[in-house]
């Protein structure tokens, strides 16, 4: 039997927790021992040696709180753009984000990518996809055309093409292959994959 803890870290929190921008970790698998802080390096062993999930989560909370650094979040403009993307489900245009924060599109794109590892347009694409995943998981019988409209795609073909590009399969195949392995019951409330 295997047990594990899956922790999703908000890209804005990476700098505060690890002292580096999320972009430095993008596309890599990094062992906690390679990140530097000794508390993080020994975290897997501590969790494995702790009995009971409430105690394990308490250990996790204690270690993460202790590792918070003075680095803080990215500059306010990047933070505002990220939060706006999340609030709109990835439908905000880069030009609107740039106008909101008072930067040019190019400057926002560079600063956003340097901090989070993706441009605002790429991040929006992922947020829309994750939103579509969560919605399809909750409502597996939702027609794909309705799913496309609800998640900001132009049409069903756009949704399907994006799904193939990001998941490597069609939405129907994803449902057939992934849904049985999710731990919660289908139809139960699920949190969105992209959260603040």
From TrEMBL:
<dbReference type="Pfam" id="PF12833">
    <property type="entry name" value="HTH_18"/>
</dbReference>
<dbReference type="InterPro" id="IPR018060">
    <property type="entry name" value="HTH_AraC"/>
</dbReference>
<protein>
    <submittedName>
        <fullName>Helix-turn-helix domain-containing protein</fullName>
    </submittedName>
</protein>
<keyword id="KW-0238">DNA-binding</keyword>
<keyword id="KW-0804">Transcription</keyword>
<dbReference type="InterPro" id="IPR009057">
    <property type="entry name" value="Homeodomain-like_sf"/>
</dbReference>
<dbReference type="GO" id="GO:0043565">
    <property type="term" value="F:sequence-specific DNA binding"/>
</dbReference>
<dbReference type="InterPro" id="IPR050204">
    <property type="entry name" value="AraC_XylS_family_regulators"/>
</dbReference>
<keyword id="KW-0805">Transcription regulation</keyword>
<feature type="domain" description="HTH araC/xylS-type">
    <location>
        <begin position="76"/>
        <end position="177"/>
    </location>
</feature>
<dbReference type="GO" id="GO:0003700">
    <property type="term" value="F:DNA-binding transcription factor activity"/>
</dbReference>
